[in-house]
């Protein structure tokens, strides 16, 4: 049986009966928003109260029925079933394969140093949350973060074809994710918005703008067509998947520099698009559009970027560059457009950090490589030979790192690990 309305729980009222002790609570139900006029601000206060009383809150965004139904339809239609596959292209149009690298022609470039080999931080320390002192917020250190989070890790070739691998994982190595930097002025890097070109390890300066105090923002977007070329309507799923990989890669690379990453979870998609220049029709023209995904704050964990100030600074900025077209033609997948419309995120209240169960630090890896070395060795698990094996102890040590520990990356970047 499914209850139409949720039960109301008062913090502190359930402490006398251990067998029925409530540890988690869902706040912001769509019914309470629709019938009781509950607002994001009120939900935010409830979340803070729940945390103060030792509860683990789950904040619902309060979507409308038609939005929820659209997402469920997409989920059903884009899922493989026993007797049918989800709709796909049926074959790969290799002549129309998307360019794996987005560039903005006409945007001034800043070449970045390949300095990750100077990083002494060990992976075992990063995964245990034993971080080095924060590095200065300057060009070389920012370049190291982008190199280890979004940069190229290797080139491969076979049968006359050549392709790149990157430090952040991606479905089918298609890399729909684009990365941006919003920063204050530092020596060698004027303040503004930059697009990262992994192929060249360079920033393209898209706009000049006033800087941010105490840190910088890493912006993440997705080009759905890069995945849809191979996976059809399932592409939206994989773009969400890869976005989370990108956030984790950036949070881990930041931790290796002693920085704390923090997801700017309250930002609306409209704000993300505005700050990253994704809403500028003239700059994309016939090029494939990018969907706004996330903003990651790097720097002082107690500081928060001033969204209104950033928006005002970019409103009068001089913009440079036009996006390149990745494919000559496209196949349109209406299901992707529908689920993207249904999941547009509005501005929400900041979510208080939820209390998490205390866990012992993860064990040290058998091979404690430098973080930079390990980040560039990431590969997909393919071509199993049925002979090579991994010890159970090493395998479970890997799984242990998936447990949410608020003080370790990438969990330390999430409002609710």
Structure description:
This protein has a seven-stranded antiparallel β-sheet. The chain has a two-stranded parallel sheet with strand order 1-2. A two-stranded antiparallel ribbon has the order 3-13. The protein contains 13 helices and 13 strands. The protein has helices at residues 30-36, 40-52, 65-77, 123-128, 139-150, 224-231, 235-256, 269-276, 281-284, 307-315, 334-342, 371-375, 392-400; strands spanning 24-27, 56-59, 104-105, 109-111, 152-158, 161-166, 177-183, 192-197, 202-208, 215-222, 260-263, 291-299, 322-323. The model is unreliable at 1-7 and 13-20 (pLDDT under 50). A hairpin with an 8-residue loop joins β7 (177-183) and β8 (192-197). It is globular. It has 417 residues and is an alpha+beta fold.
């Amino acid at each position: 049986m499914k209850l139409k309305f949720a039960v109301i729980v008062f913090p502190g009222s359930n402490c006398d009966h251990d067998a029925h002790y409530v540890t988690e609570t869902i706040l912001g139900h769509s019914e309470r928003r629709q019938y009781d006029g509950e607002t994001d601000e009120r939900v935010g206060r409830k979340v803070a109260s729940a945390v103060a009383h030792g509860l683990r809150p789950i904040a619902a965004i309060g979507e409308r029925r038609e939005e929820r139904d659209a997402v469920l339809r997409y989920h059903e239609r884009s899922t493989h079933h026993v007797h049918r596959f989800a709709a796909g292209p049926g074959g790969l149009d290799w002549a129309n394969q998307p360019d794996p690298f987005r560039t903005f022609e006409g945007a001034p470039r800043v070449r970045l140093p390949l300095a990750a080999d100077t990083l002494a931080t060990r992976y075992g320390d990063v995964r245990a949350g034993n971080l080095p002192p924060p590095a200065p917020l300057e060009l070389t250190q920012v370049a190291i973060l982008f190199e280890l989070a979004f940069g190229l890790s290797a080139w491969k070739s076979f049968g006359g074809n050549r392709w790149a691998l990157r430090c952040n994982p991606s479905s089918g190595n298609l890399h729909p994710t684009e990365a941006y930097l919003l920063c204050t002025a530092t020596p060698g890097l004027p303040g503004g918005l930059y697009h990262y070109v992994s192929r060249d390890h360079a920033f393209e300066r898209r706009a000049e703008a006033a800087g941010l105090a105490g840190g910088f923002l890493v912006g993440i977007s997705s080009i759905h067509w890069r995945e849809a070329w191979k996976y059809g309507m399932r592409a939206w799923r994989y773009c969400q998947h890869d976005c989370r990989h990108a956030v984790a890669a950036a949070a881990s690379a930041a931790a290796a520099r002693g920085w704390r990453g923090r997801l700017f979870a309250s930002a609306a998609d409209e704000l993300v698009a505005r700050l990253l220049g994704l809403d500028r029709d003239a700059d994309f023209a016939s090029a494939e559009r990018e969907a706004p995904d996330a903003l990651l704050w790097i720097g002082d964990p107690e500081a928060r970027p001033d969204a209104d100030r950033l928006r005002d600074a970019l409103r009068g900025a001089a913009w440079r560059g036009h996006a390149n077209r990745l494919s000559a033609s496209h196949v349109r997948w209406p299901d992707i457009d529908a689920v993207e419309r249904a999941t547009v995120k509005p501005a929400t209240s900041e979510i208080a950090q939820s209390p998490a169960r205390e866990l012992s630090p993860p064990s040290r890896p058998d091979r404690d490589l430098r973080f930079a070395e390990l980040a560039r060795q990431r590969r997909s698990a393919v071509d199993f030979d049925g002979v090579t094996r991994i010890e159970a102890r090493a395998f479970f040590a890997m799984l242990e790192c998936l447990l949410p520990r608020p003080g370790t990356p990438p969990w330390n970047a999430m409002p609710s690990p």
